[in-house]
Amino acid sequence: MAEVMAISRAIDYCIDKNIRNSKVISDSRSILMAIESTEEKRRIMIEIKKKLKLTKIQLQWVKAHNGTVGNERADALSKLAASKDQIDAEFGPTKAQVRYRGKEILATKWQERWNNSEKGSWTKKFFKEVKFSRLYGDFYYNQVSTSHGVFGAHQKRLFGKERGCPCGEQLETIEHILLKCKIWGKERDDWPKRWLQKDISDLVFYSPFKKDAIDILKKLMFSRLTS
Length: 227
Hints:
Layout: H1 2-16, E1 23-26, H2 29-36, H3 43-53, E2 58-61, H4 69-82, H5 95-116, H6 141-146, H7 152-159, H8 174-179, H9 193-197, H10 207-226
Parallel strand pairs: 1-2
Helix pairs in contact: 1-3
């Protein structure tokens, strides 16, 4: 933005001194292109465009550090200004900076609410940190990450139904069904032994486990709907 302010001040100087037919030289090609862009919406850019329309002042690009006297002088003065204790001009945050800061604040507040919430304790095993990136769920696999589904533990919590696992286990949780239940032992026959030694939070995002877990849940739901 320093280059933009320099161009704006140079144009103002030419107007104040009635130097109508002149050129303002800059080595910032990106700024000059932004000023010419029809999509540029920043206020200072719009003001520069208005000033240029009312005068015969032209903008011209020169290569940096190429011996152009005025450009080399401007570069030396900018370095001198950067070493000053006091700031002559201060810019407000850009839209991108405002969006970034807003996102930071939202993420912090969201994380605090997530950490302090008494709900979602099971889901927190897999998602400890909140993120803005989108997750693409699956009807069956969402039951693994939320513990909401046709299994007994959720039915009891939601509807007050007393329902243990048909294998004899008192509480039918999603973890029990996938990793321990004897009824689904055949589906686990080809699993590596290390899977059964891990916590489910270490397996939930592993693609081969995910595929097998979905198969088990499909069979479980079909059995419940047809029983």
